[in-house]
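From the pipeline queue, job 12 of 40. The input is one protein chain; the requested action is below.

Action: predict structure.
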Amino acid sequence: MRRFITVEDFRAQGLSRAAIRWGEQRGRWRHIVRGVYGDGPAEPTSLERAVATVIAAGGVACGRLAAVLLDLDGIDFRGAEFCVAPGSSNARAGVHRRDLPLDRIIHIGQVRCTDATQTLVDLGREVSDLVWEQRARRVLALRPRHAPATESLLETLMVQLARTIPNLSPPTRQYEVYDTHGNFVARVDLAWPELGLFIELDGQQHKGQPVYDARRETAVVAATGWLCGRFTWREVVTLNMVTARRLAAIADQARRRPLPA
């Protein structure tokens, strides 16, 4: 899918209306819906128009559109379908006023979208039980064979985020670390042993938790020499594109260094 550019993006780059028109005439971008352009001169697809509509409205793709963006099989695409906050305009076709919890929203490319769980719940209202069961099985099949379930919503969201990074294998969940003498050191949330990299996630903290987490991280690094990436709830949930780039950079750094013995 092409990259989308909003009028606000153009203004942030200092482009005037005349410059935007000039760029469109030269085929650098093409107007898709009001306030949103797409890279290149090609005619936008119906899916691109739907996504551009969601971006223009500041909404969250949901229902069948979310299912298509999540690559769920057997769902017919029927155009833009998205949620906006209560009190927002719902004049566009396919829009619903609705409060969505932040932990039910992910990014797919440049568009905000309901996560797999929320999408399946939404689809349950309009598709048959058989189709819904097939979709649920597909989502569960994304978990690597024999991998344990994540132990928190934050871990699940981080696994989903890591899945978007090219050339990064799925992480090992609840990885147990031992020192050179075979003594148990700690269990980390997510790890890539082949890279010498592990992830620590800071969720809703209780008293003393930050100190415990810092000590555990120090113990793991001392025992393994691995790199550690530490991420907060806000970074994973609301700054996930920035967080994905940061995780990709840490993974690249891990690949470039000799793997500790």
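Job complete. The chain has two domains: 4-139, 153-256.
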